[in-house]
Amino acid sequence: ERINTYANLNHHVPVVQIYMDQSKDLLFDYRLSRESIEALMTLLRREKTHGWVQHMEVLLVVYWLAHGLSYSVVSRVFDVPKTTVFNIVHRMCEAILCPLEKVIHFPTQAQCAEVGNGFHRLANSPAFRHCVGAIDGCHIRIKAPNSPHAQDYLNRKLFFSVQLQGICDSFGKFLDIFVGFPGSVHDTRVLRNSPVF
Prior knowledge:
Radius of gyration: 20 Å
Family: Belongs to the HARBI1 family.
Cofactor: a divalent metal cation
Order of helices and strands: HHHHHHHHEEEH
Strand order of the largest sheet: 1-2-3
Largest sheet: 3 strands, antiparallel
Strand content: 5-15%
Protein name: DDE Tnp4 domain-containing protein
Structural class: alpha+beta
Main location: nucleus
Shape: globular
Subcellular location: Nucleus
């Protein structure tokens, strides 16, 4: 008979207490709604024979992604060893990437009319009825790379970054993402090099 051993949630950790209280809003601490976190937990559900409970792993990695903190800081926030934070972050980020195409994809032909009507309502103009996506980019702050090409990552706002190009539908759902170009690259060049172009 196999014995399941889990490292449980520490209910005395403030960010875990916030999650456990169903009346609390999670947006400030996790930058995701409770529904989004629960959906992520469902998407990543798997049978485990040992290790941390899935709730702890998902909460920890979402918190780490939401705040861009070091492993040491997240270790103190969740009261777990720094090596555990490192292992959970890397394992869970890989797990999140696996079902990416199931979650982030363009609408089907049948869904395009609904998305277009959503843009029509948002813009209050029938001209947007045939729109299926809104595109924009943002800079994701990084530490200055230790390489001869470090200046390529210095953006026009004078901080080091990589660029994220995203396309969303009228409901705010991502349809496409493209990330990785250095911060100094113009948005047009990012678009021209993205698979969607």
